[in-house]
Amino acid sequence: MSSKKCENRVVRDTGQDRIVYALVAYMVASITLLLVVLLSIPYLKGPAHSRLRPLTVDRPSSPPIAESVEQGRDGPQDILQLLPDTEFDKSAEVTGCPFPGNVRAKCMDAADGKLYAQGLSGSTGPYSALMQDVVTGRESSNHGSNLLEIPNGTLLLTWFSGPFEGESGVAIVLSRLDPGSQRWTRPVEISVEVGRSAQNPVLFYDNKNSALMLLHTSQLAKKGQATAEVRQLKSLDMGATWQPHTVPFHDPGAFVRNSLLHSQDGESVLLPMYYTPDGFAKFRTHYSTLRRTSDGGATWTETHMTQKGEWLAQPSVVRLANDTLVAFFRDRRGEYIYRSTSEDDGLTWSPARRTRLPSNNSGLQAVLLASGWIALVFNNVAGGSAGPRFPLSLALSQDAGVSWPYVRDIEIADGTDVLHLGRRQEWSYPSIVQNRQGLLQISYTFRRDTIKHVVVTQEWVEGGTTVGNYKPREV
């Protein structure tokens, strides 16, 4: 009798245990499913392009890339600079926020100076970054950037930042991307004066004098461009410290904007300039010149590139392999980019003729590539003297700027109607350099909220299209 009861109890206990085990298994499966869903949410909120991650570098003891490429003469280079063309996703775009999406409210969260991979795989080029502000959380207006690669491979980026263009206290700031780093440093102010507005900085490394030069415009606050003068700073330690500024150009409305270059013999430095003697709105009185110094900026001579009445400003000058100089001009009428040439190292210039590329009366910049082609960054739109500043596009020419068979957009309108602080949709005032590894480094104004930096290749440009006014197929 007792033996039978014992058997029944064992059977009942076994059944209860099975029920408990089933409940526990169900709960474990439910929790696991919930965790999977929660972890997947970021990947369900947008397309592959928005699921980007920062460029990271593993440092194993024997990195394959370090074994297969030649190291720079000043030590190992940034791994980003060593990526071959095959590491660039030619179908990927760089427009909009680098990470994590293109919602304006969140876009500035990505203004951390980091380079993010834009390739659809999330780990390949092209790359882009948004610059940090001088002070975290400060509402600054940022504009007019300029890039330079210095001899040790570091990239320098300068622009003007402050309350707004033309107001008191607008400063020239400087950030750097050192070899081996994937984050731009927080910018520091290097030139600022209460009661004046600093603008349009340009950087140049003077090989003859082993000095880093920075020139920028400075105008009286809220008094207009006719009060502008050009200030010059010099650094002997690659931008770590700067000597007090001098004022080489007091002429009314003196302005700089685009990069300097060495003379044909390497003994002088050439500086493209333009003037607004009666203020910004008096376009008919604007003109362009080329300044020249052979003593490190102590004295300068001047040659006129255009005259008053031609409505041309902000020349960007490149030197071809045969030493011909080619200049591209901003058209104050907002119709076409103009082109001029010099066969005597800038002493005389041909009459400026319009190209097929449109102008919106905004900034542009050109550079000669190692391939012998010219790359030019501009707003591919015509719109009168106050035209829209998008799209921002990159064009390529293999015949010194006569024709442009390739154009690809870098930024297009993002559909934002109401902008923070009332700022307009603006992607403008570009700067472009090709570094020693052959990558195209481009910076530009990103809605005046910050400065954006993108890294592309010539092949990337050739693989894209444009929504702008000029279409290469129409040539």
Automatic annotation (TrEMBL):
It comes from Cymbomonas tetramitiformis. Residues 153-442 form the Sialidase domain. Keywords: Membrane, Transmembrane, Transmembrane helix. Pfam families: BNR_2. Residues 52-74 are annotated as: Disordered. Signal peptide: none annotated. It comes from the Eukaryota. Gene3D superfamilies: 2.120.10.10. InterPro entries: Sialidase, Sialidase_sf. The lineage of its organism: Eukaryota, Viridiplantae, Chlorophyta, Pyramimonadophyceae, Pyramimonadales. The chain crosses the membrane at residues 20-44. This is Sialidase domain-containing protein.
